[in-house]
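Q&A log
Question type: sequence-to-structure
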Amino acid sequence: MNEIIILDKPAGITSHDCCDEARKILDVEKAGHAGTLDIGVTGVLVIALGEATKLLRLFSGLPKEYQGMGYLHEDVSREKLEHIINDKFLGKIKQIPPKRSRVKREEREREIFHFKILGKEGKKFSFSVLCEAGTYIRKLIHDLGQEIGINAHMVSLRRIKQGPFTEKEAITFEKLKKGKENVLLNLLEAVNRLQIKVIKIDDQQEQDLRKGKFLNIETRENEFMIAVNKEKVVALVQSKDNLLKPERVLN
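Response status: OK
Response body:
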């Protein structure tokens, strides 16, 4: 089983636990996710099953879109909030990961493609954010408050999109238990929705890749591609010196 689940993650469970639950429901040995959602956050969680976990890097780097609720500890006008966002929190920004994160706490650059206020009532405001992978939304709301000169925190958050995968196609654990294979996304279909080149190979070329050999196929330099034989994903390959080097080969 080398397939993808677009899970609608519930609150109150970790992303790791979601993978364990999916693995048990479908009785597969391996499952991994393509981007952690905090325990209280809901929404789109891309989970790879079996050998598809070898291609998680292709999914984890996709842009992500969120909708959530923030809270200002002191009330400010919507106009001021939007002015600060447009002036300081669009495009390339600097972020330091929060203390509870598992990554090294050093400043790094992330891109915010859009950050919009959807509504405001008193100190509460709803928002949407489309951002580069690895952006901490909780920290974004905190930093927004700091820029204004007040405290602010995130109240709730939902991921509504990751790359081409949206909440409209996300399934709950209940549907997964009822439908199982009928609600899984074929790996080739999932890959075809990504902005990555797919190259068709024959049986001999597949065997060569499985032996670790390079393929003599002329392509653009240093380009990652997916090698496919008979509608089956064989490997993630990289072009180098007019050769295709196997990076990850699926069994």
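Response note: Residues 143 and 152 are 8 Å apart (CA to CA).
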